[in-house]
Amino acid sequence: MLLTVRPALAAAAALVMVCLLASACSDGDGGGDGTVAPTTSAPSTVTATATAAPTASPAPDPFASFSNNVEVSIEGDFVVLRSDGLPGHVSPYFDPSDPRYAEYDGDNPQFQQNPNGIATQTLVLRVPRDPQPADQHQATPLGPIGVAVNGVALFNQYAGPDQPLTNEINSFDQCDGHPEQQGLYHYHLVPDCLLEQVGADGLVGFLLDGYPVYGPEEEGAAVDIAGLDEFHGHSHPTREYPGGIYHYHVADEAPYINGDGFYGLPGTVER
Known about the structure:
Layout: E1 3-4, H1 12-22, E2 35-36, E3 70-75, E4 78-83, E5 123-128, E6 146-148, E7 153-154, E8 177-179, E9 185-187, H2 192-198, E10 203-207, E11 212-214, E12 217-218, E13 221-222, E14 233-236, E15 245-249, E16 268-270
Parallel strand pairs: 7-9, 11-15
Antiparallel strand pairs: 1-2, 3-4, 4-5, 5-16, 6-7, 6-10, 8-9, 10-11, 12-13, 14-15
């Protein structure tokens, strides 16, 4: 525990004299700000004169959930997420010489691998630190609308302008992702390999508006999709936000990650 010492000026001389006599005083970290550095154990001769009021455990930092291929920093009112875009799991879209390469072994008999390969990216998302609901909700664009905690981009429910994923879904690998023409690997729907790591009720990632995305379950049961709003989310406490927050849920049925646009005011994305 850090203690801040603020001695009255009138008592300074007396304090110095006491320190010299007792040979047991410290000036903290030597910076002159009166902050006493913590010690591993208190001297046996020290007797507490007051009991500090208990404090609640701090809420976990949700951005600490990102894998080490994502750099997290703060710039003003935004959290900046810099990712190389590479999944930490296997895929047939890696080059065969890559140790993460694996032939398709999923359960879609109509799988057809597209001609694109996974390439390292420079993906930079700036999301609000304090997300707020939008007065006018913006539609999600084609391309990255968020990022998963493993650094993989999240895309919306369309293969193109208002085009459903009906055919494109057959190019999704065993981890439910695929790369686009520039090699950006991404998820449109439930990322099963990622859920194996974070859990079916775990934090999946964040959309550009700063609101989190969670898995398809809550409290051991599947999320009632009918109970979500038009943006594919709802509000209540979560593990990372015990005070409650609006959040999205991934699902096995359309619109998969997000519904009719961003719930909040979106930040920006650069590639």
